[in-house]
Each structure stands twice: as structure tokens, then as C-alpha cells.
Amino acid sequence: MLPTTEFALLRRLATEQVTGRAPSLVAAVVRDGEIVWSGARGEVDGGIPDNATQYRIGSITKSLVAAVVLRLRDEGALDLADPLGKHLPGTSFGDVTIAQLLSHSSGLTAESPGSWWERTPGGEWSDLNASLTAREAKHRPGRRFHYSNVGYGVLGELVATLRGTSWLDALRDEVLTPLGMTGTTERPAEGHARGFAVHPFADVILPEPEHDAGAMAPAGQLWSCITDLASWTALVGGDTRGVLDQETVAEMREVAVVEDGDNWTMGYGLGLQLVRTGGKRLAGHTGSMPGFLACTLIDPATRTGALAFANTTSGIGILSLTVDLIGIADDYEPALPSAWRPADIDPALLELTGLWHWGPTPFHLKVLANGWLELAPANGGGRSSRFRPLGEGNWLGLDGYYAGETLTVERDTEGTPTHLDLATFIFSRTPYDPGTPIPGGVDERGWRS
Question: Which residues pair with 196 in a beta bridge?
């Protein structure tokens, strides 16, 4: 990036490291799938940390586990609406759905019973499951957002059961290796930062423990580095590299529940935290474990993202830092739009384009560059949606009021499009065209003064 941009990014990082008193703080900016800037302040073992230095990423682990669950869904091994008990019998909460577990709306307790799992070694799934009695359901499933580390311990066991291997092996084979994330491990490898607590009233530090969390590991066990997590950040922004379908990642970024009311700023999708700030809508996740803080966020609209790691238990505003790094990059060097070029689309789609009417309301139908359709009111307001082809004249609604609904192109005996049928709404070339099956019919006397 430009020297002025790099200096502004480094200054923000340096200010955070000093004011938050972190032993070390590293960060990077990702754009279009590549690291375009990275910086570090502080020391790790007497040296400056680099993009390969490992830090614990805490709950960012959840997003990676969620990716494997979505891969299982895309393969048809499960449905997100399935109750857990269909695939993982023997729990006291088999009625909660997989989607509710992914979005923290299952109502399960936040933490596993017993000693705090982040600071004590974990046990086997059988031990965790036995501790999760009916009283560990704190809310009615689907009622509200209630962050549940336990829920992701459960999802890890679900992955292990359906894949016939450990959750970690499945994650490594299906996500980490394809993304080239060879520096992401369950336990610290050579070249890792040690976690510390910083005394609140004195400039001294205390080492934090590190251990295997056992059955709770899928909630926050992993260690990673800037280079690796940049690849994951790019995936969340849409550079999926074959690990997930574009539509699946977009689904993960959809708001399932919100944390802070009607005018929400913090929400949750399927394994991803969502942040609305400064006109941006960011997706990613924060992470914390004793001795460590981490965050990754990306704006899918600009494909600019950022990530940051610190080896301190508290004191660093890891979320605000990451948001600010994205803002600085986009403010100092806004991404240029791609040059317009004619699209390679099926010429047969052109006869569908133009003006259509739902009753008296005019709509425009356009062909998008990827061969999808867009139907939107001519005045720019109201219900609009994009549609992808299903074949045989049918199209699937992707967003807005018509998401999931089917648009069918009806034709006459010569094959000319006569009208559109969208979830029983009839769109005709002219308002209330009497030659089309308008629901309720059309007055035979027609339009009048």
C-alpha cells in the first residue's frame, strides 16, 4: 500500500499496543484475497513477531468448525433444520436444530459445567455430555441469542460422528489443507507466542496456562498465524478457493440473530459474527483465551479485511482495532471498481428483459453478468430480488421478499414469453394484461376514464 496508508495503519497498531500494554500485537490487512500490509509491535522471545508467529485464535475456531458443518449440509449428509438427535443421539437437548447451534440460538448454557474450561484441561465427549443435563438449557430454543461455547463442543462431536474421524482431522483435511493453512494447529508449534496476563496496576506480566480443552476444543482450541488466517479471512469475503460454494459463504454471513436490539450493530450468522459500523457490514469472528486475543473481519462489499492477534488476556480493543484497520485501508486507498466489460450471457435471455407489470406496478427485469436475473420495481423502491436458473424456465429467488420462491417463465405455443409467475404473482408485459391469467380476472370493459 502507499507509504501514507502504511504509516496510518502502523500508527493505529502502535497506539493500541502501548495503550493496551500488550507484550506483542500483530495485524494485517487483506484485499482481494492477498495480504497487502502487515505490522507488528512488541516482542516475542526477544524478537519482533512476524506473519508466521503463532497465537491462539480462540473462538475463531468456531467459524472453521462451522465450515465443515456447512460442507456436510451441502453434501446432503444433514439439513440445518434437522434436530441434533437425528445425527447425535443420547443428549438431553436433541430437539435443538443444527442451525440453532451454529447461530447461538439453541438456548444451551454458555459454559460447560464444572471448572472453567478455558483454564482447566478438558475431558472426553462422554464426560461433557453427561454433565449437560436438562437444566443446562437456559432458554427456549430459537428464542434469543445466547452465546454458547458448549454448542460448538457439541458441533465438533457432530462432525466427528458424521465423518468417522476427529473434528480436527476433518477440519484439517477439508478446510485447513485446501487453504494452505499449514501453520494452524491444535497445540502450539515452534515459533509461537506465549500468553500473558498484564497486571492492571503495574507493568508486570504473568504467564497464562495452555492445555488441551478436550471435548470443548472445537469452541476455541486452535493456534494460527497471520499468513494462515489471512486465507480464512479471504474465504469469508468470498474467495472460497473451492472449500465452500459462494452461496454457502453468503448464507453464513446472513443475520440469524442479533445481540443488541432493533437497530443492531452486533449479530450472528452461521458460525460468523456480524458487525455493522460506519456504513459497513463486516463478517468474521473475535477470539479470546487466557493470554490471547484475536479478531478477523472482512467487508464483502469491498473485499477489504483485517486481522489482529495479541498475547494478552485483556486490555486490547481487538474488535475496534480490526474495524479501524479496515476503515483506514478503505479511506486512504478505496478499491477501484473493476472495468465494465460486455458479459458472455445466453442471448436467449434477452427476450426476458425489459418492462413487466405486477398489476399496475411496473418492474424492470435485467440479466446480470453471471447469467442470473434481477427483478426490481421501476421506481427503485419495493420488492426486488435476484434469481438464479433452476432449468426448464424456472428460477430461484435469492434475496428479499422472494428469497426461496420460484419464478417461472410462461410461454405461448410459439415459445414467446407471455408472463412470469412468481409465487402466484403474475407479471405481464402490460398492466393487467387480459391475455394472461391475472388472479381474479380482468374487468371485460378494460381501462376507462
Answer: 207, 312
Looking up cell 408472463 gives: 419
In the numeric block, which cell numbers belong to residue 120? 482447566
Rg of the chain over all Cα atoms, to the nearest angstrom? 25
Q: Cβ(269)–Cβ(254) under 8 Å?
A: yes
Residues pairing with 287 in the sheet: 294
**How far apart, in whole angstroms, are the C-alpha atoms of residue 63 and residue 224?**
13
Given a contact cutoff of 8 angstroms between Cβ atoms, the answer to whether 321 and 22 are in contact is: no
Q: Residue 218 CB: number of other CB atoms within 10 A? A: 29
Is-contact 357 427, C-beta < 8 A?
A: yes
Residue-wise pLDDT for 131-177, tens only, equals: 999 999 999 999 999 999 999 999 999 999 999 999 999 999 999 99
The C-alpha cell at 38 is 502487515
Output the CA–CA distances (angstroms, integers) from residue 15 to 12, 20, 315, 330, in the order listed: 5, 8, 12, 20
Write out the DSSP string of 108-129. B-SS-SSS-TTSS----HHHHH
Q: Name the pTM for this structure.
A: 0.91
44 vs 310: CA distance, rounded Å: 11
Contact 156, 167 (CB under 8 A): yes
CA distance readout (Å), 104 to 96, 241, 247: 11, 27, 21
How far is 113 from 92, CA to CA, in rounded Å?
14
Model pLDDT for residues 284-338, shown as the tens digit of each residue: 999 999 999 999 999 999 999 999 999 999 999 999 999 999 999 999 999 888 8
Contact 75, 245 (CB under 8 A): no
How far apart, in Å, do the first and last CA atoms of the chain sit?
A: 65
